[in-house]
Amino acid sequence: MTSNRSHISDVLNRSRSRTSSEGNRQAMQDEDYLTMLKKTPMQHINSELLNYPLQRAFSQPVTKTACVIQDPSSQRLHWTSPPLHIMVIRKPGISTLPEFREIINELLRRRLYVYIEDNEHTHLPFTTDEILKKYGENCIAFDEENDLDKIDLIVCLGGDGTLLHVSSLFQDSCPPILSFSMGSLGFLTPFDYKNHQKVLDEVLAGNVAVLLRTRLKCSIIKYRDPESLEDTESSTPKTKSTESTEPSTRNSLSPDLFPDDKISHLALNEVVIDRGPNSYLSNLDLYINDSYITKVQGDGLIISTPTGSTAYAMAAGASMIHPNVPCLLICPICPHSLSFRPIVIPAGIELQVKVSEDTRLTAWLSVDGRNRHELHHKDTVRITTSVYPVPAICRFDQLGDWFESLAGILHWNVRKSQAAFNDTDIHDKEDDSSDTPALSPTNSKLNNDSDNDNTNENNMENKML
């Protein structure tokens, strides 16, 4: 056994001292020798010595991988050409009307083309205002069909709801948005209107921080009964065009599902599927990339963006997520299960929410609190991350604006600070502790026993009397 161990040590010494040129040849010799040693009873071989040359023989150089994570503060707005077409959208009502007129006049003085919604022309004094008289032809009514690609910048006067309205108008590529806080909350609108001239100068010059807020693409796929479909097909005369286009209308999820391109929305906050006015539980089947995940039984389900994590999802108990995090948030609404908690999944996958076959009534879908649609049995909703984010111009930077909104608007972790000890309090506490004698458990027990004995004696005397 001694000679065997010394021979293995010689193999180890050779393997440690070999040069790179003879590495492969020596490794093969060590492997052959170790194959022979494996036939030897294991009690005669040191396992540590056996594994070392075997690892050296089969080890290969490991390729190191590195992941480059982009710094959110590197996202800046740079104009390739000076912006000329500016759209101004305001919160409805008279509260924002003075600022609305003022900022339009400011933009017209700069010889810019200003687009406003069609119903806003009646609120502008074209006949009495000097600026509107002179540059009124540059104030244009916005046409949703023809002017979407013309807008270079959007100025938003209002709160979070006004920004959601802007997102609903631009259901494709969205221009940068400059939001002035004039609403009731203003979590997504960081700028104060008092400094609007300075802010406009900086934004029109470019090189300002911008936050790309991801959106969700939501598509509704209606279920059609195959029997009724066959009746419709039999009653409709077939032509060459219908025969060629019919197979492409069916959806890959199920042969009975037909996509409706008209029912498609982009959501900045969330997509909500709930029970609506029905009194029964929602019964939904959740799929991720065509794989069944779970059944949702409760009031409904919230599929949220990171931007929407501080909205409805936060009220339903979900975590708050910074808008730069590429993910989707799945949050149940009042689930009838103690273990159904909100979860975060990576962006880029496709969610499918299907109304279960055994559900009692229909479900209802809403996108950012609007665009309500009724979902019937076996209808499916497909949700994925859109390729068209909302570029929101930052006041400070991507992190500073978010944390300032958390603290200033949602009062995140706001608490009265605990008072520190001063010298007087410390000395008083030490004096109080020194004046009060400490009772050990034994002494305390003895005192209690003596008190009990005195009580028993008094009771005996009272009975004798």
TrEMBL record:
Q: Which UniProt keywords apply?
A: ATP-binding, Kinase, NAD, NADP, Nucleotide-binding, Transferase
What highest taxon heads this organism's lineage?
Eukaryota
Q: Does the keyword Acetylation apply?
A: no
Name of a matching Pfam family = NAD_kinase
For bias kind Low complexity, which ranges apply? 234-249, 442-465
| A single MF term (Gene Ontology) | ATP binding
Q: What class of enzyme is it?
A: transferase
Record's keyword annotation contains NAD? yes
Q: Which GO terms describe its biological process?
A: NAD+ metabolic process; NADP+ biosynthetic process
Q: Which Gene3D superfamilies match?
A: Probable inorganic polyphosphate/atp-NAD kinase, domain 1, Probable inorganic polyphosphate/atp-NAD kinase, domain 2
Q: What's the Enzyme Commission number for this chain? A: 2.7.1.23
Query: What positions belong to coiled-coil segments?
Result: none
Q: Where is this region: Disordered?
A: 1-30, 229-257, 425-465
Q: Which residues form the signal peptide?
A: none
* Annotated Polar residues bias: 1-27
The record, for InterPro entries, names: ATP-NAD_kinase_N, ATP-NAD_kinase_PpnK-typ_C, NAD/diacylglycerol_kinase_sf, NADK
Q: What family does this belong to? A: Belongs to the NAD kinase family.
Q: What is this protein called?
A: NAD(+) kinase
Q: Which organism is it from?
A: Didymodactylos carnosus
